[in-house]
Amino acid sequence: MRKYLRLTGALMKLSLMSQLEYRINFISGVMVEMGWMLVKLLYVAVVYRIGVNIGTFTPDHIMIFIGIYVLMTGFYMLYYLNFTLIGHMVQTGELDMYLVKPVSLQYIITLRQWSFPMFLTNATAGSILIIAGWHRAGLPVSFVRVAGFLFLLLCSNLLTYSLYLIPNLLSFWIISTGGLDNIIAAMWDFNNMPCMIYGKWMQRIGIFILPVFVITNFPGLFIMGELRPFMFVWAVGAPVIFFIIARLLWKRAVKNYSSASS
Predict the structure, then answer these.
(1) Helices (H) and strands (E) in the chain, counts
(2) Is 261 among the domain residues?
(3) How many other C-beta atoms can be found within 10 angstroms of the C-beta atom of residue 231?
(4) Is 73 contained in some domain?
(5) Is residue 130 included in any domain, yes or no?
(6) Structural domain count, the chain
(7) Could you tell me which of 8, 19, 227, 255 has the fewest CB atoms within 10 Å of its CB?
(8) Entry pTM
(9) Spans of the chain below 50 pLDDT
C-alpha cells in the first residue's frame, strides 16, 4: 500500500506538471469547466425560483444533493480520461507497453493521468453548495455526522470508480465503443437531483442493480438523518461488491486481450 501511495503522489505530480507546462491551456481548461459549472448551478437557481419541495426536502436540502453531485463529478473527472482511453489502447496495442511494468496493470491503466482543472472547479463549487445548504437547512453539525458524511463520500468514490469502469471494459471485446461515453454520461446525470423524483422501480434499480443513486444521495440522506441503517450498510457494501465485480471482469478482459501485433 505504501508503494502505491508513493506512486500515486508521483503520478499526480507528473500530471500537474504536464498540465502547467502550458499554463494558458490549464487556465482555459478551468474556464471551460466554470462555464459548465454555471449550467449546473442553474438547477439550484430554478429550484429556489420555483420554491419546489420534494417530500420533506426543501430547496436548501436539494442544494446539498446538487452540491454532492458537483463534488463527486470533480472526483470522477480526476481519472475519467483514463477510462475513455482504454479502447484506444486496446485497438492500437499501446496496452502492450504496460503489461510488463512492475505494478498492477489495472492501477496503472486507470489511474496514471489526473485532470486537475476539472477537479478543482467542481470540488470548490460542490463544497460551497454543501456547506451553504447544510447551514441554510439548519441541520446539526456534529463529529458523528461530519465523520459519517466523509466516510460515505469515500465509499461513493470507490463505487464510482468500480461502477463506471465496468462498461469501459467492453473495449476488450468490441471494436468501437463511441456510444459508451453518451450512455455513461447519461447514467451519471441521474445523480444531479434526489432519487425521490423517480418512480419506485427506478429508485430500486438505481439503488440496488445499478447503484448510481448511492453515490450522491446516500451521503446527503445521512447528514439529514434520513438514511436508514439497512441503507447505510448497503452504502458500505455496494462499493466492495462492485469493486470485486470490476476486478474479476478486468482479469477476464485482460485474459481475452490480444496484442495488436499478434
Answers:
(1) 12, 0
(2) no
(3) 16
(4) yes
(5) yes
(6) 1
(7) 255
(8) 0.90
(9) none
